[in-house]
């Protein structure tokens, strides 16, 4: 009934987060407490939610239950299949408000917007030069490693 009424009776005392289910608040509180009650018996990985552990377990099982009907490619997560499907449909839901550039992944739009902002988040520890993309920094660091060998 709370869903229909819009009532949100559960509130986090730490940060003000509010929700309509006690169990949701309990899960949220793990952010603040650091509690990680779900543990992988194979490798010891721990996490805050059972759904995260279930996803993790596919690493060990190799299970890829989500299959693309177009090309047969298989995925561990349904969200990855959804993103993949944009290749086939041509959907480009992420658009740059400055120039109209469109892409099919939010991470691509984030990288693109650095063109306009000039943001250079990836700084080389050796020479101090900053780059817009992590891959460019990695290439620079590889160059330095080769020079020292």
TrEMBL record:
The C2H2-type domain is annotated at: 10-37, 38-65, 66-93, 94-121, 122-149
Keywords, sorted A to Z: Metal-binding, Nucleus, Repeat, Zinc, Zinc-finger
Could you state a single Gene Ontology molecular function term? RNA polymerase II cis-regulatory region sequence-specific DNA binding
As for subcellular location, the record says: Nucleus
InterPro entries in the record, alphabetically?
Znf-C2H2_CTCF, Znf_C2H2_sf, Znf_C2H2_type
Q: Does the keyword Zinc-finger apply?
A: yes
Provide one Gene Ontology cellular component: chromatin
Judging by the UniProt lineage, the source's domain of life is Eukaryota
Main subcellular location:
nucleus
Name this polypeptide is given: C2H2-type domain-containing protein
């Amino acid at each position: 009934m709370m869903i229909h009424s819009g009532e949100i009776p559960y509130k986090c005392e730490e940060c003000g987060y509010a929700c309509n289910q006690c169990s949701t608040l309990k899960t949220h509180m793990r952010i603040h407490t650091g509690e990680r009650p779900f543990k992988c018996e194979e490798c010891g990985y721990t996490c805050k939610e059972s759904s995260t552990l279930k996803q993790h377990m596919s690493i060990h099982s190799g299970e890829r239950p989500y299959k693309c009907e177009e090309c047969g490619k298989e995925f561990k997560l349904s969200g990855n299949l959804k993103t993949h499907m944009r290749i086939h449909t041509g959907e480009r839901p992420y658009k740059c408000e400055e120039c109209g550039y469109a892409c099919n992944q939010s991470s691509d739009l984030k990288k693109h917007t650095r063109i306009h902002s000039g943001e250079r988040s990836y700084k080389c520890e050796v020479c101090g030069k900053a780059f817009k993309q992590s891959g460019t920094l990695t290439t620079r660091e590889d160059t330095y490693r080769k020079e020292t060998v």
